[in-house]
Amino acid sequence: MPISASHSPTPDASSSDEGARTDGGVTDRLVAANRLYADSFTDPGLSARPAQRLAVVTCMDARLDLYPAFGLALGDCHTLRNAGGVVTDDVIRSLTISQRALGTRSVAVVQHTSCGMLSLTEDFRHELAEAAGQRPTWAVEAFRDLDEEVRQSVQRVRTSPFLLHTDDVRGFVFDVGTGLLREIDTTR
Predict the structure, then answer these.
(1) Cβ atoms of residues 101 and 95 within 8 Å
(2) Out of 43, 47, 66, 141, which could bridge 86 as a Cys pair, Cβ 3.0 to 4.6 Å?
(3) How far is the CA of 54 from the CAs of 25, 34, 63, 154, in angstroms?
(4) Alpha-carbon span 21 to 154, nearest angstrom
């Protein structure tokens, strides 16, 4: 898998509106959509503390639309996303803050079928080091066995000394083709 992505040419800096870029790219569309959203926005008065006292660790994959897939509403949970939905040190950091400062008690680890991390290897890191001229400080965290990766991520949460609540930690695989969750037996 190549490590580079194609990039659009940088827009002319003179095409700015009080510092805003107007190259017609996807980010400009996001900004425009936000203006429409803000026009009718009313502060719902939600707390930073999730109503369901739930934190979900999942993949950054664009096919995962968690709120409707899990029957959640705005304010119900903290959502932590990264490549693969693996529990890394940074995820433990966020879960620790989520639990200790914001009251969450349950953790759902949700990985998914057809994940790009199933096709990567540590060679990606070596290729990146060669291309960038320095080695990344982070691990790729690629995996070959989805169910085993869910088990490992759940185990990382359950054994973290920083987390207060490790009794309600469950692992799942979301099927991107059917939309169904499959719970993984993490007692092995």
Answers:
(1) no
(2) 141
(3) 35, 27, 21, 15
(4) 42
DSSP E strand stretches across 40-95: 54-59, 77-82
- Strands (DSSP E) contained in the chain are 16-17, 20-21, 54-59, 77-82, 106-112, 169-174, 181-183
State mean pLDDT over 149-171.
98
| Beta-carbon count within 10 A of 56 CB | 25
* Spatial distance between the Cα atoms of 56 and 170, rounded to a whole number of angstroms: 10
End-to-end CA distance of the chain: 33
- Please choose, from the candidates 72, 64, 78, 155, the residue with its C-alpha nearest in 3D space to the C-alpha of residue 112: 64
Determine the Cα–Cα distance for residues 11 and 23; give it in Å rounded to an integer. 6
Burial class of residue 108 in the structure, from the number of CB atoms within 10 Å of its CB (0-12 exposed, 13-18 middle, 19+ buried): buried
Per-residue pLDDT at 6: 40
Inter-CA distances, 127 with 6, 134, 140, 175, 188, Å: 17, 10, 12, 30, 35
pLDDT in tens, 85-126: 999 999 999 999 999 999 999 999 999 999 999 999 889 999
Q: Are the C-beta atoms of 163 and 157 separated by less than 8 Å? A: yes
CA angle, residues 94, 47, 69, in degrees to nearest 5: 70
Query: Residue 126: phi, psi to the nearest 5?
Result: -65, -40
Return the residue matching tokens 């409707």: 68
